[in-house]
Amino acid sequence: MLVDRLLLGPGPSNPYPEASQGLSQPLLGHLDPEFLTLLDETNDRLRTVWGTQNPRTLPLSGTGSIGMEAAFANTVRPGDVVVIAVNGLFGERMVDVAGRYGAEVVRVDHDWGRPIDVQRVLDAHPRPRLVGAVHAETSTGVRSDIGSLARAVHERDDAALVLADCVTSIAGIPVEIDEWGVDLAYAGTQKCIGVAPGLAPFTVSERAWHSRVASPPTWYLDLGLIGNYVSGTEGGARVYHHTAPTAMIASLHAGLGRILDEGLGEVYARHASAGQRLADGLRAMGLELFAAEGHRLPELTTVCVPDGVDSAKVRTQLLEEYGIEIGAGVGPYAASVWRIGLMGHNARLDRAEAVLGALAKVLGR
Amino acid sequence: MLVDRLLLGPGPSNPYPEASQGLSQPLLGHLDPEFLTLLDETNDRLRTVWGTQNPRTLPLSGTGSIGMEAAFANTVRPGDVVVIAVNGLFGERMVDVAGRYGAEVVRVDHDWGRPIDVQRVLDAHPRPRLVGAVHAETSTGVRSDIGSLARAVHERDDAALVLADCVTSIAGIPVEIDEWGVDLAYAGTQKCIGVAPGLAPFTVSERAWHSRVASPPTWYLDLGLIGNYVSGTEGGARVYHHTAPTAMIASLHAGLGRILDEGLGEVYARHASAGQRLADGLRAMGLELFAAEGHRLPELTTVCVPDGVDSAKVRTQLLEEYGIEIGAGVGPYAASVWRIGLMGHNARLDRAEAVLGALAKVLGR
Fold first, then answer.
1. Percent of chain A, pLDDT > 70?
2. Is A107 helix (H, G, I), strand (E, B) or coil?
3. What residue stretches are annotated with the Aminotransferase class V domain (chains A, B) (predicted)?
4. Which of A187, A267, B70, B313, by CA, is between 20 and 30 Å from A348?
5. Average pLDDT, chain B
6. For position B131, what pLDDT does the model report?
7. Domain total for chain B?
8. Which residue positions of A form the known binding site?
9. How large is the average pLDDT for residues B61-65?
10. Per-residue pLDDT at B230
């Protein structure tokens, strides 16, 4: 018997039906002209969703975190100063990854559950090579103002690069890479894009592209080599690098097609209204939201576990009795916060009602 | 209109029907107990196909080449001597990757199309940290004797590690990691395993595991962190690392299930007989095989393009008129060799007849 869950954790979410169809289409080879056309279209669709004209926009062959790794591997040389705004797990992860590539990391810590403070990040170092921050912190459900950060960084120093983690924001809330002036950004497919996990949409500004590390320590994530396959060499020919995950890319193509057919504005509005209903319902149940008011993500709501309630037991009951997956908290909040996602195909009022109803029953409220 | 190809190049091949079914099952979360059971079973099945008891056996979240990268990233420290047997593109790639991680690489070049010479590899350096070689060279269709290499290396120096690229051999010809004494090996899913591209089955001996680099330069491929998720920590708990590509792993689980239901011996015999029929048919057509006799892979046959024939034009005609994909050659043999794969679900006599018939028509033979 196949297990069919309602995936309302921090991702993966249940894919859009179009994405599932794309995944089960006949498989194409990675050098087939039909596939290369599909890849080009996928990258065009990604550009629309990212809000960018960057020619270097593509899905990397790994899950979201591989995008973070590719960003640092291709831009940071040992000794480069990298400022990281940390307000949750994924900021922490940036610190770890940047350090492995030899960066001199200046971390700017914030309380978890709060957005980043642009001025503090700016004041942390006068001339960093790169400033990294998370747009939508998956660990806390908080949105930070990446546009203000990027503008402030570039106003001071045109050569500094700005890196944004958009894993949980892309296709759920507006992302405007070019308008904001973000140089590198990565995402995942398994959240608001509504596709299974396995790819990391990635985009690089021309400025970052031309200042990248010539031969990064990683072969698999060498953007120059990947670019020769995805966009072709200077001479125009496409050169094989690694076997692209063609089924996953066909699914991404289809999922993005669905999003653009519906319209990005409509998709954002659907996330906003589902998230609002969930937040209202949780508060009506007497529960306290974790993320700072005014900075809450509609696609991922964090809620405090009530005193005396066993967090894991509630999650298990939701899973076993209702087939609903919600997420635990992370790090210091592992047992005291739940994370409830209404992402992509699940950004719907019926999903909000389902989890609100089930949670009310389980909590006896 | 969906394009449906017969994928008879060097991979991807058309998936086993069971693998396609697995890919379209309802998606599970990466921390769902149901998924973790499926992951455990997948790793058990991989152990059987690898011929190993290694507890550290798992699918890495990327395509085959990510396995190569993980192997070097987790074992090689700057200055370590690494001997690489090069008899094709994937040996070349090992040299590139090992060098990026700071290895002092000693390469032992062989003619492309020939197997590796164990004694020459052994003589290249008296005390290397690691010796790497490709079991089945995807670029040339040649099998090398990894068992003899591994035994010889370990007889001389018990501490040296042996790394084998099994991307094109696994589940097509016998692979015996433990019997041979291989310490690290990686594969891909898109060839004889008969699953879409996107995962790299990987196995590590306990000896290699315990001598690995404590904090490798890569976060995504840090085997210690990945192991904490896949196998659990010392305390037994599984710790989140990155979001596993759950749809692809469900597909791998199903594809491996199909292979083990059929029986590994039967699967190898099926590859052998389909490959033999293809080789016989090509010779009967007056074509010359490229790989050295006695060392040819049944799952991937390399054939010389006849004088005066335009290699690319023939491939295009096969693709457009017959819907059959075959591969070009690689590097110096790009225009003078074709690569025809009968892998996984395509290791069948009907596929051999289809490509032989189509090729005869196109070549007018």
1. 100
2. strand
3. 29-329
4. A187
5. 97
6. 98
7. 2
8. 339
9. 95
10. 87
Say whether B2 and A9 touch across the interface (CB within 8 A): no
B225 and B284 inside one domain = no
Domain residue limits at A185:
17-260
| CB nearest to A100's CB, from B26, B197, B215 | B215
Q: Coil, strand, or helix at residue A58?
A: strand
Domain co-membership, A115 together with A242: yes
B176: three-class secondary structure by DSSP:
coil
Q: Which residues of A touch B3 (CB under 8 A)?
A: 26, 28, 32, 34
Best of A3, A215, A220 to substitute, by most chain B Cβ atoms within 10 angstroms, is: A220
- Going by the annotation, the residues of the binding site of A for substrate are 339
pLDDT at B236 over 90: no
Same domain, residue pair B236 and B317: no
Domain boundary among A260, A280, A304: A260
Any binding-site annotation on B270?
Answer: no
- Per residue in B65-114, pLDDT (tens digit) is 999 999 999 999 999 999 999 999 999 999 999 999 999 999 999 999 99
Distance CA A192, CA B278 (A): 47
Judge whether B68 lies within some domain.
Answer: yes
Task: Give the model's confidence band at B235: pLDDT under 50 very low, under 70 low, under 90 confident, else very high.
Answer: confident
B25 to chain A: which residues are within 8 Å by CB?
Answer: 2
DSSP 8-state class, residue B183: S
CA quadruple B58, B63, B64, B69: dihedral, nearest 10: -80
CA distance B156 to chain A (A): 31
Instruction: For residue A290, give both structure tokens.
Output: 């974790």
Contacts of B27 in chain A (CB under 8 A): 5, 7, 12, 14-15, 196
Quote the pLDDT of residue B233. 81
Judge contact between A355 and A343, C-beta under 8 A. Answer: no
Sort out which chain B residues have CB atoms less than 8 A from A217's CB and list them.
100-101, 217-218
